């Protein structure tokens, strides 16, 4: 009898988020599930680790989240702690979400949802980040069913194993808020592109000080065919394979050719 895969589940909306519960319930038939999620919402936390204070882990007892663990830290903290001592052994897969709102284009650089999946990849474990396009949790159970199908596909494919380059697979998945029957179309995509973020919103505090709210994400700039934005506009699920190597290899070669190497 083959060993059940061990799936670590986290998110950035917090352990009480409906998207996390829906995802966990959907993937339970696929393996042994461990849930370690932030205590509070950490949207936009990116890959931040908490280094200024100790972290505490608590286990939920009773209710529909019975057995969930939560940490007073970030999504990256959750996966990092799991990988470096909390779990007896590394899981076979890390999944994160389902996030309330899209993570496309440059969003992935800020997203705590994506960061949790990235942290698994940094420890050699494949990761999938799931986001639902529209906020408000509309049709979250349908999105979770689609996430189940994608996780099942991942577990039976060669993406669940490290490749010749030694890197674990990393997928960023965005799911339209549609009935499950409409979510059968998947598109493998590249990241699109946004314009610059909207300006900050300036207000006066009750004490007369200026306060600043980060503005909304920029409007879509590149939604051409093949991008995540284009797939979503077509009503499809967008699945973007990503990598952690941020080196601009073409520019690296050009700089060396133009004498930037010295000594």
UniProtKB/TrEMBL annotation:
Its EC number is 3.1.3.5. GO terms for molecular function: 3'-nucleotidase activity; 5'-nucleotidase activity; exopolyphosphatase activity; metal ion binding; nucleotide binding. The keyword Transmembrane does not apply. It catalyses: a ribonucleoside 5'-phosphate + H2O = a ribonucleoside + phosphate. Its cofactor is a divalent metal cation; Mg(2+). Belongs to the SurE nucleotidase family. This is 5'-nucleotidase SurE. It comes from Polynucleobacter tropicus.
